[in-house]
């Protein structure tokens, strides 16, 4: 279980201006949950995810995994970023094996695990390919296979499907849901896209100005097809989230 207690993060910019990226956030995330972090640009989603990953230090408060405070990255937490995170100088198979190599897993075992995960993401025939020979969507599959193969029970994903076209994105969303359901991993997924959250999440944490302003149970049935998302409950969830994301009303004459 992940517990976040009064987590705050203040950045001081070169101009001397201070930005409170996280403002006394508290929440708990149970094992096996699929949580989307939603919010407008600059409202703290990536900072929270990076803090969970141990890539960012809090200025106050604490994040703990199974009672152990997060002090840096660890093999219990895998990451998938928006940018391509595959190593271009390694074959697809070597990329997926890399995290296992770092854990000291013997060659035969890591080759087997990597092959198994490449099969699961539909790239069984591409182990000997170079990343540059793959499409953007296929490279993202490599990144997903690498994250799952590493064995971390918690996977942290920062807008991983952001740059992809609609159909590729939908395919990868479906793949991710299948892998989540079959493995029971905990997934925390940053998105600014309400539709993506409705397709993926069991729970949506909405961030605004560094605070969690809503914690919504996305209790739609799966598959989350157009019809399900357009159900009264789907529309109600969308409207609630949109209400939190909408621009502040500009009051004429206000400072
Ligand atoms: N390393 C940093 N140094 C200084 N300020 C930062 C740093 N990282 C984030 N910030 C600031 O913290 C605030 C929250 O940024 P964050 O990246 O967490 O937002 P976000 O919701 O993920 O945005 P986006 O959707 O655009 O990625 C922003 O004002 C940003 O400028």
From TrEMBL:
Keywords (A to Z) from UniProt: ATP-binding, Nucleotide-binding, Transport
Domain ABC transporter: 5-234
Family recorded in the similarity comment: Belongs to the ABC transporter superfamily.
InterPro entries assigned to the protein according to its UniProt record, in alphabetical order: AAA+_ATPase, ABC_transporter-like_ATP-bd, ABC_transporter-like_CS, ABC_transporter_ATP-bind, P-loop_NTPase
A GO term for molecular function: ATP hydrolysis activity
Pfam families hit by this protein: ABC_tran
PANTHER family assigned: ALIPHATIC SULFONATES IMPORT ATP-BINDING PROTEIN SSUB (PTHR42788:SF13), TAURINE IMPORT ATP-BINDING PROTEIN-RELATED (PTHR42788)
Protein known as: ABC transporter ATP-binding protein
Gene source species: Amaricoccus solimangrovi
